[in-house]
Amino acid sequence: MAGVTSPITMAGTLVQTHAEQLAGIAICQMTQPGAAVLYGGIPGRANLWNLGYQGGSVECGMMNAAIHQLANHVKVPNYNSSGLTDAKIPDAQAGWEKAMTTMLAAMGGSNFVHHAAGMLNCMITIAHEQFVIDDEIIGLSCKVLAGIPTDTEYLALDVIDAAARGSDFIKSAHTMKYMKTEYFKGNGVTDTKNLDKWVNAGSLDTWKRARDIAKKILARSTADYMPAEADSAIRKKYDIRL
User: Fold this and answer.
1) Are residues 69 and 118 in the same domain?
2) Residue 18: what pLDDT?
3) How far apart are the first and last CA of the chain?
C-alpha cells in the first residue's frame, strides 16, 4: 500500500510488489515444482489523511494494469482487483471510480479480476444495487475488449454504396441483421429513453433503477445449478459443512 507498506511512488510500489511476488512464486516452486500459480500482486495506495486503504483511486487502477505487464513478463497469469470505490453509496463517485479501475484492469490484460462487483466503502460495505450497476460497468468493459470487427460484412461497403444510390440505412437488411448484436445491450439499468418518457416513468435515477432490478432478481425462485449426483460425489470426497 503506497505510502504505508511500500514507497509512496507508484513505480516504487510496483518494484516492491514484483519482488515479493517473485519470492512467493519461487518458494511455491521449491515446495512443489511445477505447481500452478497466480501472480497475486494487488498494489494499492494509502489515504494519507487517515492511513486507510484508498481502493477507488485511479492510481490503484493504473498500478493494477501495470501489474499484468509485470506478470506477463515472467509468463505467469495474474490476479488483481478492480471495481473498488471509496464512495459509501451507489452514487456518481462510485460510478467513476469503478468504471476507471475496471476498464484499466480489462484493457491492461488482467487474467483474474477480483472484488469487481458490489463493493462500497473500500470493501467494508456491499449493496445489491451496486452489483447491478457493476454488472453494467463490467459488460461495457468486455464490449471494449471485443473490439471492432472489420471483415467485409462489417465494413458494409455495399450498404454504403446502395445508400448513395437512393436506398437508406434504416430499412436495409444489413441493419436488421446487426441491430441487436452490434451494440452493447446491458442489463436495463442504463436509461436511454427521451426526457418525457423518463419523467413519466417516475424520473428514476441510476440507484433507484438498480434497486428495482435487484428486487426482481431476488424475488426469483432459486435454482440448483449443479446436478444432484455431482453434488453428492463432491460431498462424499470432501468434508463439506455447508
Assistant:
1) yes
2) 97
3) 35
Specify if 195 maps to a domain: no
| pLDDT tens figures, 140-167 | 999 999 999 999 999 999 999 999 999 9
Q: What is the mean pLDDT of residues 28-56?
A: 90
3-state secondary structure 157-182: HHHHHHHHCCCCCCCCHHHHHHCCCC
pLDDT for position 47: 86
Burial class of residue 91 (count of CB atoms within 10 Å of its CB; 0-12, 13-18, 19+): middle
Residue 214 located in a structural domain: yes
The domain in which residue 88 lies consists of 1-147
pLDDT tens figures, 169-194: 999 999 999 999 999 999 999 999 99
d(CA 150, CA 105): 25
95 shares a domain with 25 = yes
Query: Do 154 and 231 reside in the same domain of the chain?
Result: no
pLDDT, position 52: 83
Q: Is residue 197 part of a domain?
A: no
239: in domain: yes
Q: How many domains does the chain have?
A: 3
216 and 129 in a common domain: no
